[in-house]
């Protein structure tokens, strides 16, 4: 079932990677038929996939991961059929504990085993009926490029801070691997689309394998309720920006409603990348972090995942565990066991741990014969030369240590590089006095959590180990500061794994810590781990996902952009594009018109190097001003000298400079001030402070105006400029607390101006003066593009219910661009603004030729 919404999405990979066919599935979950397009009573414009919303309630969850939480094997009998069972170790299965029992869960993912095409239909049917799992069958050649190629050669190393500086370090960027990555994500999207009820279902996507999946789903269903959780680190912007497809991945993730990270550092790096590469800023409100992205608020969740304590405790109660603990207790009798459990890959720091052990035995000879390091090395998930090098180095260091410090009956380092049963690993946890994790970079690492729970023990293990059941438990952790769980375990000894001497000393400290302190640290850790388990994590994430999706029912949505540049515009139902025909019709039938126009960003493109108005802009303004029924005002933040020079040819144009502090009704009128300011002595206080921040912030500058001072950091480093702006805002508010001024921050600016100066004041005076002249405006048009114009929108909108406007007045508050504002209308850009204004001016040219000449009235009184 191939969606028509996907005709262009593979073009985003700029390649022709083949898309494999899909096996026929004989059974599907019920699905609500949807029709693309926005509800007719909201807008006439067409849209892709704006499905009619329904109230938010979590009834069914679709969990999407790279692999299904299943184990598979061939039947030993002659039939050779596939047999499946739940993988109890899978996080995707364990997180169900955080859902209500009545929530239906559907899994979408691939299988570890390769299924022959002839068997795929039957397997899919079995998994759907028995496990509610929808398998995504990936052809082997594409899977190799996707998983072992793009995921493990590009994303995994980069997210762990390894740059491909040479072909040996991860390899150069390969476009064909990227195409395979996109292709596989599309296959997963198609599988989700077969089972989703887009109005009601929630979708939770997991990890870096499926980072572009949100774009595929959002393109097909604009209101899909979609969460994404990244289980790996997210690198700093300096590292991430080296990825050739950096923008595509960021924009794809931003098509989620909620994005989760294990730590604040990972979230901070993601937000910094969005700021530096996409120009997006985030806000924190009532404890929640959100990114405004084309009218949608993309929420950020920071919460480390937990473990499934029930599963651990059930394994602890197994007879096999008790027997293994007894065996190990006898094996290491009279010795202190320190334990390391790591995957055999380059980021786990196994060799660094071994070198620290070597250093410990060298510097503390009394530890020889007493301390044993048991290193469990799980099989690597990836493959390649780097894995082989880690294995060779690990074995070489272990051999050297054992040859140097070993003796009959004493082996300093016990390396276990074979797969262990879970109960065997649990047994090692139970007998270890200290757990060591020295990864140089790791997303979360739940080994310390498992260790803490296992050290709590149970009655049978207490008896085996000779521990009094009522005795306090104890444990010690030595953790790398570069792993995700480190911030959560505040009682651990944190180390820089690259500092071998420091790690060795930390290991020694862990051994000599007094028993009461070991007990206190263990109690603190156990309290945290037991209350922040996987169920808590899942429940908290889904709570935030529901909260993030509540506004879906209130927004109109439509999609724009191609490929992975696709995004959804989400706006209030009352906010719509200004129809030129509608406003021209209202313009023609009205007699007293007030027109207020912003300049920068409205009449002039915001990115233009030259800010001088062109001939087209001046011509349109003059055409509007020549109509005696119009009062046209340009309301700008610029100084009056500049505006006077630029618009000297517009003799009948009213100008409000410096956000309304200076006002002039036409070219021949004198400048007036809207607010009485006794003096500007405050400038002598504010300017030295701004100069201090200008000197220390490269790319910033001071804009000195007659009535105001502004500190602009548009060309400064985004993060540093924003940080400095916050500091400057606090500094200025402090030193100017007793002055009659307001200090405000805007987009890349911090401004100090007299109290009461605002653009809305110009609109208020204009409407009031027209009323006093007996010319109540029956047509009001106000156009602006930023926060400073919001005040004008609010004034003219509220005036409809007051005496300044007649009940039948036509009011048009219009912003530039589809962004949430207090305006009711929008136009896409300055070119549309100019075309609309030209349409107004030319609509009455014929009438103007036949009408008798009259002079324009001066509207604003000179007080």
TrEMBL record:
Gene Ontology MF, one: alpha,alpha-trehalose-phosphate synthase (UDP-forming) activity
Top-level EC class: transferase
Top-rank lineage group of the source organism: Eukaryota
Pfam families: Glyco_transf_20 (PF00982), Trehalose_PPase (PF02358)
An annotated GO cellular component: cytosol
Alphabetical keyword list: Glycosyltransferase, Phosphoprotein, Transferase
Family in the record: In the N-terminal section; belongs to the glycosyltransferase 20 family.
UniProt protein name: alpha,alpha-trehalose-phosphate synthase (UDP-forming)
Source organism: Salix udensis
């Amino acid at each position: 079932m191939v969606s028509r919404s996907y005709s262009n999405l593979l073009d985003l990979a700029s390649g022709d990677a083949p898309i494999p066919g899909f096996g026929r599935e004989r059974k599907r979950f019920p699905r609500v038929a949807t029709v693309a397009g926005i509800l007719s009573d909201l807008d006439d414009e067409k849209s892709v996939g704006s499905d009619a919303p329904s109230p938010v309630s979590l009834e069914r969850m679709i969990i999407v991961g790279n692999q299904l939480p299943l184990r598979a094997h061939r039947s030993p009998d002659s039939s050779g059929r596939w047999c499946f069972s739940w993988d109890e170790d899978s996080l995707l299965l364990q997180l169900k504990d955080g859902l209500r029992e009545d929530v239906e869960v559907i899994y979408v993912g691939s299988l570890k085993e390769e299924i022959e095409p002839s068997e795929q239909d039957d397997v899919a049917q079995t998994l759907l009926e028995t496990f509610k799992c929808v398998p995504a069958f990936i052809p082997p050649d594409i899977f190799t490029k996707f998983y072992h190629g793009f995921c493990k050669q590009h994303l995994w190393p980069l997210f762990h801070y390894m740059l491909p500086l040479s072909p040996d370090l991860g390899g150069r960027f390969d476009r064909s691997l990227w195409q395979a990555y996109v292709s596989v994500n599309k296959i997963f999207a198609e599988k989700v689309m077969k089972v989703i009820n887009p109005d009601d279902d929630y979708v939770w996507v997991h990890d870096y394998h499926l980072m572009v999946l949100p774009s595929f789903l959002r393109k097909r269903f604009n209101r899909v309720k979609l969460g994404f959780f990244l289980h790996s680190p997210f690198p700093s912007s300096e590292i991430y920006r080296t990825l050739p497809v950096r923008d595509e991945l960021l924009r794809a993730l931003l098509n989620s409603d909620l994005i989760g990270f294990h730590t604040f550092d990972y979230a901070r790096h993601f937000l910094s990348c969005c700021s530096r590469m996409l120009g997006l800023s985030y806000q924190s409100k009532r404890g929640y972090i959100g990114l405004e992205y084309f009218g949608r608020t993309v929420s950020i969740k920071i919460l480390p995942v937990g473990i499934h304590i029930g599963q651990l405790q059930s394994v602890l109660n197994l007879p096999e565990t008790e027997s293994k603990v007894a065996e190990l207790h006898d094996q290491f009798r009279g010795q202190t066991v320190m334990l390391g459990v790591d995957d055999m890959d380059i980021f786990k720091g196994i060799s660094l741990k071994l070198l620290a052990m070597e250093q410990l035995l060298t510097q503390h000879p009394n530890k020889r014969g007493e301390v044993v390091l048991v290193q469990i090395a799980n099989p690597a998930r990836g493959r390649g030369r780097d894995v082989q090098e880690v294995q060779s180095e690990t074995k070489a260091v272990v051999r050297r240590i054992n040859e140097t410090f070993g003796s009959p009956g004493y082996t300093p380092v016990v390396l276990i590089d074979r797969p262990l049963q879970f109960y065997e690993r649990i047994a090692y946890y139970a007998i270890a006095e200290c757990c060591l994790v020295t990864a140089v970079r790791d997303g979360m690492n739940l080994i310390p959590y498992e260790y803490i729970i296992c050290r709590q023990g149970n009655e049978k293990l207490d008896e085996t180990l000779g521990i009094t059941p009522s005795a306090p438990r104890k444990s010690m952790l030595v953790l790398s500061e570069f792993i995700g769980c480190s911030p959560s375990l505040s009682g651990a000894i944190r180390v820089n794994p690259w500092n071998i001497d420091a790690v060795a000393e930390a290991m020694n400290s862990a051994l000599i810590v007094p028993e009461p302190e070991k007990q206190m640290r263990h109690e603190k850790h156990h309290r945290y781990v037991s209350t922040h388990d996987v169920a808590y994590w899942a429940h908290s994430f889904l709570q935030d996902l529901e909260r993030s999706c509540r506004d879906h029912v209130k927004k109109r949505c439509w999609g724009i952009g191609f490929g992975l540049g696709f995004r959804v515009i989400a706006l209030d139902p009352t906010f719509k594009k200004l129809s030129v025909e509608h406003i021209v019709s209202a313009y023609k039938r009205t007699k007293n018109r007030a027109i207020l126009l912003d300049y920068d960003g409205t009449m002039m493109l915001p990115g233009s190097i030259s800010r001088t108005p062109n001939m087209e802009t001046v011509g349109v303004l003059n055409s509007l001003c020549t109509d005696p029924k119009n009062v046209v005002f340009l309301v700008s933040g610029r100084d009056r000298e500049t505006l006077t020079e630029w618009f000297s040819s517009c003799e009948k144009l009213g100008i409000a400079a410096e956000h309304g502090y200076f006002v002039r009704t036409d070219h021949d009128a004198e400048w007036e001030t809207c607010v009485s300011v006794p003096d500007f002595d405050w400038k002598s206080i504010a300017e030295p402070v701004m100069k201090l921040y200008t000197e220390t912030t490269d790319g910033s500058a001071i804009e000195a105006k007659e009535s105001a001072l502004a500190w602009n950091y548009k060309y400064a480093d985004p993060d540093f400029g924003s940080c400095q702006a916050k500091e400057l805002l606090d500094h200025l508010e402090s030193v100017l607390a007793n002055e009659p001024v307001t200090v405000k921050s805007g987009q890349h600016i911090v401004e100090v101006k007299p109290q009461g100066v605002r653009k809305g004041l110009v609109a208020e005076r204009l409407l009031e003066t027209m009323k006093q002249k007996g010319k109540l405006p029956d047509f009001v048009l106000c156009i602006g593009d930023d926060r400073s114009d919001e005040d004008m929108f609010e004034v003219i909108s509220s005036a409809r219910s007051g005496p300044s406007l007649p009940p039948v007045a036509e009011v048009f508050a219009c912003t530039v661009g589809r962004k949430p504002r207090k305006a009711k209308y929008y136009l896409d850009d300055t070119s549309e603004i100019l075309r609309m204004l030209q349409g107004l001016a030319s609509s009455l040219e014929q009438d103007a030729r036949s009408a008798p000449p009259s002079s324009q009235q001066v509207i604003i009184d000179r007080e």
